[in-house]
Amino acid sequence: MNIFRLFGDLSHLAAIAILLLKIWKTRSCAGVSGKTQLLFAVCFITRYIDLFLHFVSLYNTEKVMKLIYISASVFTCYLIFFKFKATYDGNHDSMRAEFLIVPAAGLACLINTKFDAIEILWTFSIYLEAVAILPQLFLISKTGEAETITSHYLFAQGSYRALYILNWIYRYHYESHVDTIAIVAGVVQTILYCDFFYLYITKVVKGQKIVLPA
Amino acid sequence: PEPIPDHDEL
């Protein structure tokens, strides 16, 4: 474990917590893409499938973190699609999730480390995570704005994988550890946040709200 | 068979 990966995981946890708090406190999921949250839940379930296959006692923080990610993302989807369904902005959350899932699944079958069920599921979850934020960014571009709390969520979510890139550089240099698929997908994922990062740093940090030219 | 890479990250 290194500092970049630690802060990456903490940033990821923070993102999940910020979103849950936003929805729970405001009792509304306006401005939140339900599809992105569904895609994240699929990512966690397919990536941590080993938890279900051979359940081992929660002997380390990693298992606990995996369970937290899965349960928090499923609970977030429950809040969006059931409890606060009336506030879900379905009209603007209109990016076709199939256009993300099918290519990720296809690519996972073509480019993977080993043609093995668990490995392909892991690869699929990595590819899907790289593009899972697109419905959320699409929704913001459609509505033309993002609540400040949603911007903080996106910043934390984007920072998590950016910090993981630093972690991969660190591990390559000190442990000569390379996981090419995760690295390439992680770089693509972080690039997708670039324009949002620019808006966040130039606006939200100064207390302004993100309003996109509609 | 070659070992399946252990993806030891979350």
Automatic annotation (TrEMBL), chain A:
Membrane-spanning segments: 36-55, 67-84, 96-115, 121-140, 182-201
Reading the lineage from the top rank, the first entry is Eukaryota
Gene Ontology molecular function: any one: ER retention sequence binding
Output a single Gene Ontology CC term carried by this record. endoplasmic reticulum membrane
InterPro entries in alphabetical order: ER_ret_rcpt (IPR000133)
Please report the record's description of how this protein sits within the membrane.
Multi-pass membrane protein
PROSITE patterns reported for this sequence: ER_LUMEN_RECEPTOR_2
Q: Give the UniProt subcellular location, in the record's own words.
A: Cytoplasmic vesicle, COPI-coated vesicle membrane; Endoplasmic reticulum membrane
Keyword Lipid metabolism assigned to the entry: answer is no
Swiss-Prot/TrEMBL keywords: Cytoplasmic vesicle, Endoplasmic reticulum, ER-Golgi transport, Membrane, Protein transport, Receptor, Transmembrane, Transmembrane helix, Transport
Gene Ontology biological process terms from the UniProt entry: protein retention in ER lumen; protein transport; vesicle-mediated transport
What family does this belong to?
Belongs to the ERD2 family.
Q: What is this protein called?
A: ER lumen protein-retaining receptor
